[in-house]
Structures
1.
Amino acid sequence: MIGRFNTDTEALKSRAQINAGKAKHDLEEWMIPLLPPLRSLQVLDLGCGTGKQIFRFAPLVAGEGWILGVDVSKNAVCAVNERARAEELRWVEAAQMPLDDCVQRLAGRHFDLIVSSYAIYYSKDIVALLKGVRSLLTDRGTVFVCGPGKHTNREILDIVNRFIPDSSEKLEPIDDFLGPAEIRDIARSYSKSIVSRLENKILFGSPDGVLSWWNHHNSFVPSVAAGVQEYVNAYFENNETFSLTKNVLGVRFDV
């Protein structure tokens, strides 16, 4: 875990699968209208994972464009490259590297669009990284990052806090992954910045679905697991679904 965000690879993968399958809104459908037209752009995906955004964007970039994904996980990078070969997407590739090394490692290459979805907080210094990638952009370049927004997961945090007796140990509400002061600081390296938000919902149809998600999240507190399980089971005796708020903050920076 880095700060208030859980970055355990397997936990993230498990939650991402649940989120994608049960989300009210498709994240990529929200993102694409916020980006410049993708046709023939040179795109860099920071923290690409196994390519969720890459393979959604690939048909839109096709032409003279290409996409490079970078990720610290060797397995994730291999998965992207294997799928790209299998689908004959010659304009898609991935490379293994830590986010904080990408500015130096990619020096001399230039991109029209740099994106990072639910990954930029892997960086040791988000602000420094987002300032630094300015040097990798073309003169028409754009950076777009998105991640957890204020009050994400509030419903599950409220339930967990019911069973934590010591007020000093209760879970803090989630805040925006980039605060206003950080956005202003980064924006000084660009001509403008635009903030967008999406209130998404993850709908669970059973107690097992909720509890499985929670067990893979950094809000999981073993000492109160029995109480939370009892509460969730009781909730479903009178309700068909449990709704979990997934607020998304997106920030676009233009050269």
2.
Amino acid sequence: MPRAVHAFFLFAAATLNASFGIELVYAQSSSAQGAANDVRAACAQDVQKLCANVPSGGGRILTCLKQHQDQVSDGCKQAVAKAMGQANGGAGTAPATSAPPADAPPSTNTAPDAAPPAAPKNSQPMTTAKSNSSQHYFLMKQVQLIEQAAGQGRPAFDLMIPKDWQFKGWVNVGVAEGGCFADWFSVVGDAKSADGSIELQMIPKYTWQYMDDPAGQREMQQKNAFDAKYKIKPCPVRAPIKAEEFLRRDLIEKYRKGKMVVSVESFPELDQLVRYRIGLPPSGGDVNGIHTEAARARLSYDDDKGQPVEEWVTAEIIVRKIPMGARGAAYDWHAVNVMWFRTPKGQLDANERLFKLIASTIRPEPEWQKFSNGVIADLYKKKREEAEKQQDIIREFQNKVADTINGVVAYQQSGSMQSAYGTSQLIREVQTFRDPTTGSTFELSNKYDNAWRDPNGQYYVMSDEANFNPNGKLDGNWTQLQLVRPQP
């Protein structure tokens, strides 16, 4: 795509609709705001004509405009060109990457007020890399969370972070706050920029169980009290709550008590990603009793060094409603994808694209997921056998939880739902690239149509600049990857 045309779509994406803000961020002075309004007016008919049936959000309208670039009206193109000429001499301001402005005060705060669980002695060591940054690309590296149970050193999760960032992560076993078997493996991760000013943290998920039937609730509480006598951690009994309420009552109250909450809002992009991973359609409400929703809270406060910071706090709630006949229903529910993303004050919006880029790459290793699911299923099987000696209500509930744990029901139905995911990569904000030298394929962010890979497959360059070439500009020998377009 020629640079001028590419710049047109980037600017249009930043001005036509608020959802395009993750594509490119611009300073909104009064003159720039007026230019943005002109672009919206000039391009509204193009969006209505070419992309009327495309839902906003996630860059979908931008993708539609790219696909119809030859049909966009001259009036729209002229309005964009005029607006670009008024903004920074014709060039937009790209979002910040890992480094803050030179005059920004450094932040040395590296953890929430209440720190996540401590790493075991054999956790994966901190990794560092030489810093390379640009307004037009992210240089990323792949890192792993290693599960060290029984000395296996088994890779558990993969994610990609900027090359010059530091990372540490581990998997705790059997040390969750609650005694629900679904929390047997607790995943913890921390990625931060070289100067420590920008940080993303992953903290363990939370699980609860509940019954509508008062008699069932009493039996669950009595069983927990009995287990506590023998120092067995109980599985907490608690009615499901909304994702936004979980952020306020649990995360913010525990980790950021007294800090200013700027906003709490739904987070549909995270919800779509989680629904895909557990085999549910991207929308359409509850399926087979499984309900999902995601939210994020924006906070602003001074860290423990007195530096002003901002951050996003995110969580996804997954509730499995289990019919219990005349007794109503029981609920096995979880808070997953619990993350914190912190930046110096004034840089959170500029780094939102980076946050979503990293979050979209977090995924479990298939072999570890199979292993961990097997361990948890065995634990529930033993619990079910033990429950044979207990009251009918508890036994029935344990039987059904054992059948649904870790999304078994959702995965069983996922095969019949794959047709609903013809746009699954669009939902997950990724696209496929091929290495022409090996034929290997990779899923990378769809925010960039240009990607390169180093010979060892350790680092990737992703750029929005069609003519950019890292060879000669960055250390190493880079192979350009081929973008694989989906078949119509």
3.
Amino acid sequence: MRKPNELLTSRTRVEPRFALLPLEGIPYSRLPEWPKGAVRVLAGPALGARFAEYLLDLPAGSGGSHPADGEIESFIYLLRGTADLSIDGTGSRVAEGGFVLVPPTSSFELTASSEASLLLLRKRYEPAAGIPMYGALVGNEREAKGEIYAGDDGAKLQTLIPDELQYDMAMNIFTFESGHGLPVTETHVMEHGLYVLQGKGVYFLGSSWMEVEATDFVWMGPFCPQSYYAAGSLASRYIYYKNVNREIAV
């Protein structure tokens, strides 16, 4: 938040194929399924995305739920705090760095056991003939081994959701040491919802390099040219979504 005597400059960019959204410009709102949560909407169809993503701040003892509706799958990543989770009546504890993927055939309830912040991504599940529905997935990023990416030991990729055909989405975490980045300008059919967890760097979006830092959100639509280069004293980390493993609708 800027002081009254400061100019209202902004790094925010919203274009047809991408958006860079610093949190300072996103107001809080509320959701019926998370009645006591302070919610910031990061992405949705109004932006051009085919998914919805939220940043939720939860007071201790509050939470949310979603019934099995056969249509919407949910991914949750805990940024801080702890929470109690129940999926179809089976309980577990989720700590910082924990993640949950709930299929559309399951219901879930999550209650913060301490003050907590989380990312919630919701999308419509895409069934495929002959591919069975997956079961709920609960884990922690610490259990996901960081693999060296493209032969660069300063770039590590953690795959949170198995790369198997029953999953129609991927959630990954990239970690780049300062001075390292993606080796090419990517241009592909998958879209991304990306949240910067730590550090800073420059992202190439469309035709320009843009500064990004922790808590920024980036949406990249299909075929948006994109690349990244890490800078600063800390390694930079971001978690990102992409749609995968399905035929392209024609």
